[in-house]
UniProtKB/TrEMBL annotation:
Protein name: NNMT methyltransferase
One GO process term, biological-process aspect: methylation
PROSITE patterns, alphabetized: SAM_MT_NNMT_PNMT_TEMT
Keyword Ribosomal protein: no
SUPFAM superfamilies: S-adenosyl-L-methionine-dependent methyltransferases (SSF53335)
One Pfam family recorded for the sequence: NNMT_PNMT_TEMT
Family: Belongs to the class I-like SAM-binding methyltransferase superfamily. NNMT/PNMT/TEMT family.
A Gene Ontology molecular function term of the record: S-adenosylmethionine-dependent methyltransferase activity
GO CC list: cytosol
Alphabetic keyword roster: Methyltransferase, S-adenosyl-L-methionine, Transferase
Recorded superkingdom: Eukaryota
Keyword Transferase: yes
Length: 214
């Protein structure tokens, strides 16, 4: 709450829109970035209302209900479609994640459940955050959602590796990338889910420094 601006870049958007349902009310233009062609194609299918696109209505209704606006779900879907201006390939391990395209720095960079899956070790994670920092304006914000102490996650009978992170490691990497952490929240993950072994979900908001001071 309180984060607003003209432009937002969603890094590692996946084939999903849930992370944009609230953000679209605070930013005028959204650029969605993802590494895999399949994810970008699935998102574009929904944006164009193509046959066979995933039905996000239950999720949109739920988010709108949390905001006291359940009956506004259709308007919220259209707002997301209107504000997502481009869907591009990205690689967070590159100095310019959208190479060969160079994006103007944004007011806010959002990344949800991406870096811990894309980075094999802490050094790569720290480097990826420095790369993400180039996408944000000085004084702009980073909104990060990650998982703590997770080593794997499973989907559709496939198991994927995940970088095990501690809260202090995430905060330290964000600070080292040129941001000042403004807000952190850690919520325990319910036990008993065999699909993952994470212990908690961490949300973080940070502001990019106006200078290069570390």
């Amino acid at each position: 709450e309180g984060l607003r601006g003209e432009t937002l870049i969603d890094v590692g958007c996946g084939p999903t829109i849930y992370q944009l349902l609230s953000a679209c009310q605070s930013f005028q233009e959204i650029t969605a970035l993802d590494y895999t062609d399949q994810n970008r194609q699935e998102l574009e299918k929904w944006l164009r209302k193509e046959e066979g696109a995933f039905d996000w209505r239950p999720v949109v209704e739920y988010v709108c209900e949390l905001e006291g606006k359940r009956e506004k779900w259709a308007e919220r879907e259209e707002m997301v479609r209107r504000k997502v201006k481009r869907v591009l390939k990205c690689d967070v391990t590159k100095a310019n994640p959208t190479e060969p395209i160079s994006l103007p720095p944004a007011d806010c960079v959002l990344s949800t459940l991406c870096l811990e899956a894309a980075c094999r070790d802490l050094a790569t994670f720290r480097s990826a955050l420095r790369n993400l920092a180039t996408l944000a304006k000085p004084g702009g914000h980073l909104v990060l959602l990650t998982v703590l102490k997770e080593t794997y996650y499973a989907f559709n009978n496939q198991v994927f590796s995940c970088l095990r992170l501690e809260k202090e490691e995430v905060e330290g990497a964000v600070e080292a990338a040129g941001f000042d952490v403004r807000f952190t929240q850690v919520q325990p993950y319910p036990p008993g889910d065999e699909r993952v072994d994470c212990e908690a979900v961490m949300g973080l908001v940070a502001q990019k420094r106006l200078s290069n001071r570390v």
